[in-house]
């Protein structure tokens, strides 16, 4: 079975994106298209990502606007049938609900607190911290507003799982295999730690896509997850 990994295909061009997607697709459940590719290529990139790859498509647009605008945007991309579409939980109840209603066949995932933010950075943008508290408040609000998935760091996965129960999909970026560079990520954990904390889907980008052989990097992380699961069973 493919590992519960969404590879962040943050590529500068569609040819590179297609190459990365086809090399990781045999090993992972999902590929994630974000702002860089979607703003450059639009729906064409979704068709290319699907190609011959049997993977779910995660559209990470992090919508954040007034409810009517988000509803329109969610409706516009719903026809592409992504399995997951992100919105920012900080957009509020009405905005989240508008996205959920506009894209009934897509799982709306609410981003709680970006994994690049440290506690100090939260204060600067006016969010009452620490990050774990802010993530919990936003998670509850998002689920009450109809979101069926949450994006959080692996650090918050266990407490959010306790808060929202087993039916909500927890998606964790900020995942770094032992020894990998953190880059601009702040709240990070290893793939095994994220899974043990209760994450359903691990978002991993650069540790896979910047490897000399992205397919081999994805296969290696998938294998480590399988071994960790077997040990904990
Ligand atoms: O809080 C968030 C929400 C989304 N992301 C996205 O995940 C990937 C992470 O890529 P890495 O290369 O593994 O850092 C990227 O596409 C982000 O836009 C996030 O990192 N944090």
Automatic annotation (TrEMBL):
<dbReference type="GO" id="GO:0006207">
    <property type="term" value="P:'de novo' pyrimidine nucleobase biosynthetic process"/>
</dbReference>
<dbReference type="GO" id="GO:0044205">
    <property type="term" value="P:'de novo' UMP biosynthetic process"/>
</dbReference>
<dbReference type="GO" id="GO:0004590">
    <property type="term" value="F:orotidine-5'-phosphate decarboxylase activity"/>
</dbReference>
<dbReference type="InterPro" id="IPR018089">
    <property type="entry name" value="OMPdecase_AS"/>
</dbReference>
<comment type="similarity">
    <text>Belongs to the OMP decarboxylase family. Type 1 subfamily.</text>
</comment>
<comment type="function">
    <text>Catalyzes the decarboxylation of orotidine 5'-monophosphate (OMP) to uridine 5'-monophosphate (UMP).</text>
</comment>
<comment type="pathway">
    <text>Pyrimidine metabolism; UMP biosynthesis via de novo pathway; UMP from orotate: step 2/2.</text>
</comment>
<feature type="binding site">
    <location>
        <position position="205"/>
    </location>
    <ligand>
        <name>substrate</name>
    </ligand>
</feature>
<dbReference type="InterPro" id="IPR047596">
    <property type="entry name" value="OMPdecase_bac"/>
</dbReference>
<dbReference type="InterPro" id="IPR013785">
    <property type="entry name" value="Aldolase_TIM"/>
</dbReference>
<feature type="binding site">
    <location>
        <position position="206"/>
    </location>
    <ligand>
        <name>substrate</name>
    </ligand>
</feature>
<dbReference type="GO" id="GO:0005829">
    <property type="term" value="C:cytosol"/>
</dbReference>
<feature type="domain" description="Orotidine 5'-phosphate decarboxylase">
    <location>
        <begin position="4"/>
        <end position="221"/>
    </location>
</feature>
<feature type="binding site">
    <location>
        <position position="185"/>
    </location>
    <ligand>
        <name>substrate</name>
    </ligand>
</feature>
<dbReference type="InterPro" id="IPR011060">
    <property type="entry name" value="RibuloseP-bd_barrel"/>
</dbReference>
<keyword id="KW-0210">Decarboxylase</keyword>
<protein>
    <recommendedName>
        <fullName>Orotidine 5'-phosphate decarboxylase</fullName>
        <ecNumber>4.1.1.23</ecNumber>
    </recommendedName>
</protein>
<feature type="binding site">
    <location>
        <position position="115"/>
    </location>
    <ligand>
        <name>substrate</name>
    </ligand>
</feature>
<dbReference type="InterPro" id="IPR001754">
    <property type="entry name" value="OMPdeCOase_dom"/>
</dbReference>
<feature type="active site" description="For OMPdecase activity">
    <location>
        <position position="65"/>
    </location>
</feature>
<dbReference type="InterPro" id="IPR014732">
    <property type="entry name" value="OMPdecase"/>
</dbReference>
<keyword id="KW-0456">Lyase</keyword>
<feature type="active site" description="Proton donor">
    <location>
        <position position="62"/>
    </location>
</feature>
<feature type="binding site">
    <location>
        <position position="10"/>
    </location>
    <ligand>
        <name>substrate</name>
    </ligand>
</feature>
<feature type="binding site">
    <location>
        <position position="32"/>
    </location>
    <ligand>
        <name>substrate</name>
    </ligand>
</feature>
<feature type="active site" description="For OMPdecase activity">
    <location>
        <position position="60"/>
    </location>
</feature>
<dbReference type="Pfam" id="PF00215">
    <property type="entry name" value="OMPdecase"/>
</dbReference>
<feature type="binding site">
    <location>
        <position position="176"/>
    </location>
    <ligand>
        <name>substrate</name>
    </ligand>
</feature>
<feature type="active site" description="For OMPdecase activity">
    <location>
        <position position="62"/>
    </location>
</feature>
<keyword id="KW-0665">Pyrimidine biosynthesis</keyword>
<feature type="binding site">
    <location>
        <begin position="60"/>
        <end position="69"/>
    </location>
    <ligand>
        <name>substrate</name>
    </ligand>
</feature>
<comment type="subunit">
    <text>Homodimer.</text>
</comment>
């Amino acid at each position: 079975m493919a590992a519960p990994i969404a590879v962040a295909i943050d590529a500068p061009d569609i040819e590179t994106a297609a190459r990365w997607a086809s090399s990781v697709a045999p090993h992972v459940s999902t590929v994630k298209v974000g702002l860089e590719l979607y703003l450059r290529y639009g729906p064409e990139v979704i068709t290319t990502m699907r190609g011959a790859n049997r993977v779910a498509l995660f559209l990470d647009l992090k919508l954040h606007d007034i409810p009517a605008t988000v509803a329109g945007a969610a409706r516009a991309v719903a026809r592409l049938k992504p399995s997951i579409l992100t919105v920012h939980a900080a957009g509020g109840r009405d905005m989240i609900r508008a996205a959920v209603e506009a894209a009934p066949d897509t799982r709306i995932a609410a981003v709680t607190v970006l994994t690049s933010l440290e506690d100090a950075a939260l204060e600067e943008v006016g969010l009452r911290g620490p990050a774990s508290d802010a993530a919990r408040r936003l998670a509850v609000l998002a689920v009450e507003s109809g979101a069926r998935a949450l994006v959080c760091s692996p650090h918050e996965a266990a407490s959010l799982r306790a808060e929202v129960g087993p039916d909500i999909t927890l998606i964790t970026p900020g995942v770094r295999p032992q020894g990998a560079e953190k880059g601009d990520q702040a709240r990070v954990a290893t793939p095994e730690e994220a899974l043990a904390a209760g994450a359903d889907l691990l978002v991993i980008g650069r540790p896979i896509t910047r490897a000399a052989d992205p397919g081999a990097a994805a296969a290696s992380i998938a294998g480590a997850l399988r071994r960790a699961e077997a040990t904990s069973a």
